[in-house]
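Lab manual, section 2.4: Encoding a predicted structure.

Procedure: take the sequence of the chain (140 residues), apply the prediction step described in section 2.3, and record the output as structure tokens. A sample record is shown.
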Amino acid sequence: MAVEWLEFNLRGYGGRAPIGTRFFDLIGLKPKDRFPTVPGEDEWQAARIVLFAVSIADCGRGDGRYDKFERQIARGLKRAAKWLAARDPKAFAQWRKERKQADIFIDGWMNSDQFGLTLPPEFVRECSRLGLPIEICTND
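Recorded output:
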């Protein structure tokens, strides 16, 4: 495995005016959802909901750590899919009507040139239902 860590975010962004927490409020994020957030405090800065993050360093030692890393990703994506399934597509349509964008942003760090990631169908289905493109960027 060449990936050191991955972070899966739901982002809302666009425009000069800071977004603050408006994106979170519009899509119905509640404290009980227990996702870390980063409000958009500057112009053009995305408001982010950290759906989950996983690091190979937290998965122990030896060959089994890669399996554990993959299981944590699968578990995180299934939890994210379940949460996304409870979101109203009309909220995202309203966001886009305001000339804003939303997507899933997968950030990561690689220590070599190989990258493998399996997105479960339930996660992809919910991203599609909500009109959320998936962007992957490593070593940024």
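Check your result against the sample. Residues 3-138 form one domain.
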